[in-house]
Structure formats: structure tokens, C-alpha cells
Amino acid sequence: MNRSIFTLCLLLLTVALAAPLPASAGQAFIPTSFGLTARGIAMANALTAIPDPGASYFNPAALAAEPGGEIAVSFEFASPDFTVKRELDNKTTAYDEDNEIIAAAMKFDLSGMFKGDRIVALGISMAMDDYMRQFVSFGDVRDDRGQFVRYGTPGVFMAFSLAAQIIPQLTLGVGAHINIEASAKMSLVTDLSGNTSSESMSMAAKASMGPLAGLYLAIDRYHAGLAYRGENMGKLGPMDVQTDATVSQSKLAGLPLSLNFRDNFTPQQVALGFAVDATDWMLVGVDAAWHNWAGFNDEVDDYNKDQGRADSDVEFKDVFVPRLGLEFKPLDGLFARCGYAYEPTPLSKPGTFKPVPDNELMQGYVAVDNAKHVASLGVGYTWEKPPLLALPISFDAYYQLHYLVPETWETSDGYEYASEGMMHTGGLGLTLRF
User: Fold this and answer.
1) In angstroms, rounded to a whole number, what is the distance separating the alpha carbons of residues 365 and 356?
2) CB-CB neighbours of 358 under 10 Å
3) Residue 344 burial by CB count (10 A; 0-12/13-18/19+): exposed, middle or buried?
4) pTM exceeds 0.85 for this model
5) Nearest to 172 by CA among 61, 47, 67
6) 102, 210, 254, 412: which has the fewest C-beta neighbours closer than 10 Å?
7) What are the tens digits of pLDDT across the range 113-156?
């Protein structure tokens, strides 16, 4: 059954490669930019040591921390208001396209399939941008107006994880989050009027997997988690295009073109989390994660080699991200949540405005990024005995604010860009148990 589910999901992702994609919409990586469950988002995703259906990505081991199955579905609306100002001509570019994200996180208790009383669980999570119309995106974004690194890419996310209880206090989990690598070949013949013939195209795609692994430990009121999330990136390339120009069926010249695209980079991460049931009505979770953004420098270098260019003077650095999440239970069935996270910018060099100073047609690439404060609030209600259902059902709502600390960047050729902005997001969630 698991193989069939995986094959179906991979087929859907592959077919969707042909879908047209709008520019400057979406988010770079949905789980870390936002989250996967309404509860997790309201707690700033401080989930490394807290059981949650979204654990299939954040810490696979936490899937087996508690018995039972869950399906959590959430809808999020995000309204960004980001700007980049180029000091050269005082030109301001606005990035303000709204986004709608649908996410589902599922946990299946497989304990009944095995002898013994240890918990075994399977987790599947997925999230899609733009009302599920975007499955995956590839884009060669080279923009001298200033392009945000961690925002602006239509996104998809999918993860599969398996967890097992080793002893009552300890669980282990492994899994993978998935992207797509594809290559294509195209050939055609064209005359001077632009009429084409003998067109042919072939495409091959495969899953690109980033490993996931985790450990979860619970002793009395205290919980600890350690998670590893591997690097992953979507790629489309090489895309080899061969165009033959003809006059009266006589070949004039062949125009070979090779394109390579890299998108949706996810740095490898190591996260350590602690949580405590401080009282019967308060849960506190604290996370700290290392994000290996410096690993993206190798991808940038490879991209420049593929394109035969050496002008993308863009460089990244590692960052550490702290998170804090609180959950209160003032009344039976009623929950109040809040969270905070701070993410430093991983960008250290923004690129080049004019790679060839005397060539006005040669477009440079300028990346911008900002340190950001993320604050969230949420409420939830668990209906313990709903009609027709044997187990409780939960309803959740949340609000999240992204505040981008104003930054001024100077390109390698001396041009300045100023970036800043805020984003308001809100969402609703529903959790079913079985």
C-alpha cells in the first residue's frame, strides 16, 4: 500500500511539471516558512520535542510518541507586502501577490500489524501553494531589480516517515522529503518566418529525496527531541534544445542551447528541542536549529559552470534559528497558543548588477534577503464526543506575522538595494482522529 501511495504521488508531481507558473508567487519552502498544521504554526513550529501530525517532517520519531491515527488539514492565506528599492534610479519593486496554501499531515498507527505492544506509525505530509494548482516549480530567476531568496517561488512539499517505539520512553524515526529532478530534450526545424516542423520532445523525471531522521525521548513531564533534515533541491536540467534554421529546405545553421534550472533549495538542518508540561494546563516547547545555507554555494557555483557564466557573485552562510512555542488549556477542550521564532538572513553577498559594465543588454542577478521575526497566535477547540464519530475532533485557527528587518545590500559592483516588508497570514485547521 505504501508503495502504491508513493508511486501515485510521484506520478502527479511528474505530470505537473508542464503546468504554467506565475512569477513572484508562493513561498520557497512551506514547512519552515510557515508550517504543516494549524497547531504547529500557532506555536511557531517549535515541534522537535512535541508530538504532532506534522512530525513526519519536523521529527519523524515523534510520530510514535502516542498511539492512534490523525489527519490534520489546514488552509492558510498569506498577504505579503515586501519591497526592494534600487538606489541607482530610486526604483521600488513591490512583491505583494497573495498566496493560498493547503496542507495535510497524516499519521497512521500501524501497531496492529505487528506482535507486541510497541507503537509503530507511518506519517505522510504534503502542502501545495495556490489552491493546490502548483505541484512543483522550476525557474531561472535572474533579476537585477532584487529577488527575495526565501520568498517568491511557488512551492510544493511532500514527506514520508516511519517511526517505532524502542522502549516506552524512546522512539526513533526515519523518512524523506521529496522534490523532483528532471531532464528534457527538444528539437525542431524552423524557417525564417518562424514556422516550425519536425518538433520532438522527451522528458525524464525522478524523485530527489532528502533524508529525515529523529529521536524522541519522554520521561514523565519532560520531552526531548533531536532531528536531522537533509538537503534537497528541485532541478530541471539539462534541457537540451536543438534548433535548425532552414531556407527552402536547405539548412542554414544549427542553434544548440542547453538550459539548467535549480529551485526550491532546502538546506540540511539539525534541530534540538525540549518541551515540558509545566502544569496540567501549560505546555512549553523550545527549539534551536542549525541551517546549513553555506551548502547552497556549491549549487550556485555548479549553476554558473552549467551556464558558462562567472558573474553571479552570490554567497550564503549558515544560520541558527531559535523557536519558542506555548500551549495553554484554560478550560476542558479549549486551547490558546502562541509562538515566536527569529531567523537571521543566510545571505552574505547579494550578487552583481552589471556583470559586463559596458554591455547594457547583459542582465545581472541581485538577491536580497532579510532577517525576520515571526510571531504567531492561535486558538483551538477539541470536541470530545461529536455525533457520528467515535473519537474527538479538533478545530483550530491561527494568525502569524512575518516582520522583515530592513536591510541594505551592496552588490559586488557597488550598487545599493534596500529591502523590507511584512506579511500577515491567517488560517484554519481541522484534525480528525481514528
Assistant:
1) 12
2) 6
3) middle
4) no
5) 61
6) 254
7) 998 899 999 999 998 876 544 433 334 445 566 778 787 665 67
